[in-house]
Amino acid sequence: MQTILSIRNIVKTFKEGGKTLPVLDHISFDVGEEFVAILGPSGCGKTTLLRIIAGLEKADSGEIVFARGDSRIGFIFQSPTLLPWLTVLENVALPLRANGVPRREAEEKARKYISLVGLQAFENFYPHELSGGMKQRVNIARALAVEPVLLLMDEPFSQLDPLTAESLRSEILDMWMWGVTTVRAIIMVTHNVDEAVFMADRIIVLTTRPAKIAGIVHVDLPRPRDRRSPEFQKVEDQVYEYISA
Ligand SMILES: Nc1ncnc2c1ncn2[C@@H]1O[C@H](COP(=O)(O)OP(=O)(O)OP(=O)(O)O)[C@@H](O)[C@H]1O
């Protein structure tokens, strides 16, 4: 499997008002062409790790290396971060415009990804006219429109009602399996064991803060996965063993 990026010896301590808070303690792993879930208890440093991978936060030491030099990243946040005064089309086109893509080309690309997430009829709507699930779809389209090689998702379904969350999980998996986007690797942060086993190829379980890697579980189950199968339960048990270790 080709390596997409290497996360090497990442250490991070927050310093505030004379206090220090060690958050990440020498985290290292490689990501190939695969779907990786990062699972860990609340406050252990999952979001911080994702932000360091995205270049939004600086590590104290360690490095993030993109193996093939292509470091285009799409980031899907926990709750939609759409600009309320822009339409769906304008929101999705915005990162492209910010990168200097001419308007016509940016809008063409934005339309492609808006229709991929099923919102072609809503491109002229404003965020307040959309449901929570639709807003998260716009977020997904916006992350994909920059044509990233790596897609980072920070608890992308946790703010949605269970039915919407489940259909978005399946849609993301369908896009991933059919290879209809430029994405070659996904890293998703979650604290939901079921979600990690349902979606990921590999689950990296972190300890409580300061986070170390407690264990890595390979999920070698065909998709779509059957949550009620004994094999699924077995993988869940493996994950829980690392969580309670
Ligand atoms: N900019 C910051 N300055 C100071 N402390 C921070 C900062 N960002 C995060 N922290 C602290 O670092 C710790 C790890 O935060 P982080 O958001 O990475 O955890 P998490 O595992 O994603 O949590 P959750 O599952 O609750 O979202 C927390 O105690 C948090 O309060």
UniProtKB/TrEMBL annotation:
UniProt keyword list: ATP-binding, Nucleotide-binding, Transport
Pfam families listed in its UniProt record: ABC_tran
One Gene Ontology term of the molecular function aspect: ATP binding
Limits of the ABC transporter domain: 5-233
Name the record gives this protein: ABC transporter related
Taxonomy of the source species: Archaea, Thermoproteota, Thermoprotei, Thermofilales, Thermofilaceae
